[in-house]
Amino acid sequence: MNSVYEYDVHLPAKMDPEKRYPVVFTLHGKGSNERNMFGFVAPLADNFIIIGIRGNLPLGAGYQYYDLKSLGNPVREMFDEAVKQLEAFIQYATDRYPIDPDRRYLLGFSQGAILSMTLALTMGDRLKGIVALNGYVPDFVKAEYPLRSVGDVSVFVSHGEYDSVFPVRIGHETAAYFKELTPRLTFRLYPTDHGVSEENQFDVLQWLKEDAK
Q1: Which residues of the chain have pLDDT under 50?
Q2: Residues near 100 by beta carbon (within 8 Å), at least 6 away in sequence
């Protein structure tokens, strides 16, 4: 099987050939690339496999996973295809690298956060957890997708209090949605615009280390 996505993989420098490792798949925001999120999770690189997935659609100097009709309104056919292809990629990478299938995490920003949350809802406990930075769950996903239980999935949702792309109320709505679905929700607000702070990074890293034990 070949991957439809270009990707950037970092394996622990001192890998034990007998061991399987937790993995963080990073999903970038619109117009970025597969290396964009590595710096955010680089402190985990000794103990985690880190795989950055590049969106397969060029956008300016970067890439995206799907196109938009308008802000917050994905082109449905492209979005559906991205969800299907990303799920296939997760399996592809799990087969190819020494990944522990019980410790698979998605970490996404903006468009990547939207896809991370959607994949949690479609894959359920085939994922150990997700980190969703400044995103939302599309209404059509909630209403029309075949959703699996996320009761055993760890979910870290964060949002910028001054987010000028997705207002902070969207963060609150997203957290309220997941609070009904899983007891394993962590929700944090940070005094940022549509971006992530060092405090946000620190909290995510600590959360991932603890959850993957």
Answers
A1: none
A2: 20, 21, 22, 23
Whether the CB-CB separation of 93 and 25 falls below 8 Å is answered with yes
In the prediction, which pLDDT does 1 show? 64
pLDDT given for residue 71 in this prediction: 80
Tens of pLDDT, residue by residue over 168-185, are 999 999 999 999 999 999
- Over residues 94-117, the pLDDT tens digits come to 999 999 999 999 999 999 999 999
CB 205 within 8 A of CB 174: no
Tokens representing 54 are: 């590049």
- Name the superfamily (CATH) of residues 7-211: Alpha/Beta hydrolase fold, catalytic domain (3.40.50.1820)
End-to-end Cα distance, the chain: 31
CA distance 155 to 125: 11
What own/partner pairs with CB < 8 Å and gap ≥ 24 does 122-125 have?
Answer: 122/83, 122/87, 122/146, 122/147, 122/148, 123/87, 123/90, 123/148, 124/148, 124/149, 124/150, 124/152, 124/153, 125/149, 125/150, 125/151, 125/152, 125/153
Prediction pTM value: 0.97
Longest alpha-carbon distance in the chain: 48
CA distance 207 to 98: 22
Q: How many CB atoms lie within 10 A of CB 125?
A: 13
Q: Give me the sign of the Cα torsion angle 38, 121, 89, 115.
A: negative
Sequence letter at residue 23:
V
